[in-house]
Design brief:
It is a single chain. With 537 residues, this protein is mostly helical. Among the domains are: 102 residues; 146 residues. It is built from 28 helices and two strands. The protein has a two-stranded parallel sheet. Helix 10 packs antiparallel against helix 11 and helix 11 packs antiparallel against helix 12. It comes from Aegilops tauschii subsp. strangulata. This is Neurobeachin alpha-solenoid region domain-containing protein. InterPro entries: BEACH_Domain, Neurobeachin_a-sol. It holds the Pfam family Neurobeachin.
């Protein structure tokens, strides 16, 4: 073995570049074939189990020794690179070494899965996913120069990417990177692998290091989906230990930020078109893959909380993960789905003081989203309406509990401040209606909340009255008056039924709005009709 390997590595540890220029793939393949007894590649063949009887100890020693040698060879290859690229003959050597290393070690794992432990101990994942290999560019055309039967070989190399469900035809994803991801995915889903944390960790590290290449991020995320599907039990444990979801969502947030920087005035829709009706196929490949990356990351989150019995409770106690979730709320194509996941967190019954604290933090984060939407988004009115509608759904889960929880999170200040602004009539009225309806839900049948709101806006809700009068530059609709009447009775006002006034502060608010916008005769008639239908509690 030393004789064969000397074609590549001298005694002092440097590469013999002259050998590399006259067919390095032949020497390395010969070495691998003799020591692992791997049959010569035939067109159309795939990676299969080695059937010849070989000592497991021999395999292990060979594998360890080869990893040590390659750990010396690849840094030397990288040292030969200039600032721009490798010399052609060295690039050939690098590509061939990488390809045969990956295919050989995968074949060894198929035949002897127990050697996975040895691979880990020798740092194989660190070697493969390092700047010497994974982040060290290689060219498919270069491989074609070396390996005969170009068309057939291309199909063979591309097979490695198919397990991730993603073809590596993108400028930021090459064939060898796809083979590396495929190999790691295979190791993580081995039946004999009861703890795939090292593999998940290596893949996660690769994900965090390649955020500038959305195509590569997409490939890695698809591999995570495969691993979670094929090795669910051990992967759930690994995800929890590594906090995978938070880190994946952070990558998605980075991709979303890049999208907004690249197209600050664009509004990306979930149907693949912008608000200006420019079709998705007019976007460049990186933009499309960045959008796919964000969606895949969020889908991985949904998959996890759906599969795991404790998944949502773990998320509830993970402030960083929740923060990333609300960051993705800014993406219109995900907004509805994010709110669905947030609502599911609120449905979790609190069973401890820690759960209560986590729910309070969730409420605070929810309310902060109003402020963030107003400060950073042009369409914050629509976003605020979505948040208000979901907030009313949350209150319905457990009215008294969530009224108190949101009150402690200073919900009234966040909600009333939404009326500070200028809007067109249609959007403005919808926002006012939703603000009043949400305040009604938060105040209904809760004297403590009513007292807290009165302290904030004054007796008779003077501050709210001023905001409404300034906000409504147009004639108030019947819906607005109905919303005020609903606030008056802590629910829905029915004109044909006797109703009890349950919130006296709204009386002055309602009368002043009515007096400002309606003629005195109509105003008097309205008061008479209302007086006949309501009485004090």
């Amino acid at each position: 073995m030393l004789t064969i390997c000397s074609s590549y590595v001298k005694m002092d540890g440097y590469i013999n570049l002259r050998t590399a220029s006259v067919g390095p793939h032949l020497c390395f393949r010969s070495f691998i074939s003799r020591n692992f007894l791997i049959p010569r590649y035939c067109p159309g063949s795939t990676v299969t189990k080695i059937s010849l009887p070989i000592s497991l100890a021999y395999w292990e020693q060979c594998a360890r020794w080869i990893i040590k040698i390659l750990s010396t060879v690849f840094p030397c290859i990288k040292a030969c690179a200039s600032e721009t690229e490798l010399p052609n003959h060295i690039r050939i050597l690098s590509n061939i070494l990488q390809h045969y290393m990956l295919s050989t070690f995968k074949k060894v794992l198929i035949s002897a899965p127990v050697l996975l432990k040895s691979f880990r101990e020798e740092g194989l994942w660190d070697l493969i996913f390092s700047e010497k290999i994974f982040y060290f560019g290689s060219s498919l055309e270069c491989i074609h120069q070396i390996v005969g039967e170009t068309e057939t070989q291309t199909d063979h190399f591309t097979d490695a990417a198919e397990s991730t469900g993603y073809k590596s035809n993108l400028p930021d994803v090459n064939i060898l990177q796809s083979e590396a991801i495929s190999f790691l995915e295979f190791a993580a889903t081995l039946n004999e692998n009861t703890n795939n944390l090292p593999e998940c960790s290596a893949l996660l590290s690769a994900l965090e290091h390649c955020t500038n290449g959305p195509g590569l991020v997409v490939t890695i995320l698809k591999s995570f989906h495969v691993i979670l599907k094929l090795a669910t039990e051990q992967t759930l444990v690994s995800f929890k230990s590594l906090d995978v979801l938070t880190r994946v969502l952070k990558v998605a947030c980075l991709q979303a930020q890049e999208l907004r920087k690249a197209h600050p005035s664009d509004d990306f829709r979930g149907n693949g078109s912008q608000s200006n009706n420019v079709q998705m196929d007019s976007l460049d490949e990186r933009i499309k893959n960045a959008l796919t990356c964000v969606e895949l990351a969020f889908n991985l989150f949904k998959e996890y909380v759906t599969i795991s019995d404790l998944g949502r409770m773990i998320i509830l106690h993970n402030a960083n993960c929740i923060g990333c979730l609300f960051d993705l709320f800014q993406e219109e194509n995900l907004r509805k789905h994010v709110l669905e996941q947030v609502l599911a967190l609120y449905r979790l019954p609190p069973s401890s003081a820690q759960d209560h604290t986590a729910k309070l933090q969730l409420c605070s984060k929810y309310l902060e989203t109003f402020t963030r939407a107003k400060e950073h988004e042009k369409n914050f009115a629509e976003m605020s309406i979505d948040l208000l509608v979901t907030l009313r759904e949350i209150i319905l889960i457990d009215r008294a509990y969530y009224q108190n929880l949101f009150r402690n999170g200073e919900c009234f200040l966040h909600i009333v401040s939404l009326l500070n602004g200028t809007f067109d009539e249609a959007v403005g009225e919808q926002l006012v209606l939703n603000v009043l309806q949400t305040l009604t839900s938060l105040l209904a049948e809760n004297d403590e909340s009513k007292a807290a709101f009165r302290m904030l806006v004054g007796v008779g809700y003077q501050t709210l009255q001023s905001l409404l009068l300034d906000f409504c530059k147009w004639l108030p609709s019947r819906k607005l008056l109905d919303a005020l009447l609903g606030m008056l009775v802590d629910g829905t006002f029915e004109i044909n039924e006797k109703t009890t006034i349950k919130n006296e502060d709204v009386i002055i608010l309602f009368l002043n709005v009515l007096q400002k916008y309606f003629a005195s005769t109509l105003w008097a008639c309205g008061l008479t009709a209302i007086a006949q239908r309501v009485h004090y509690k």
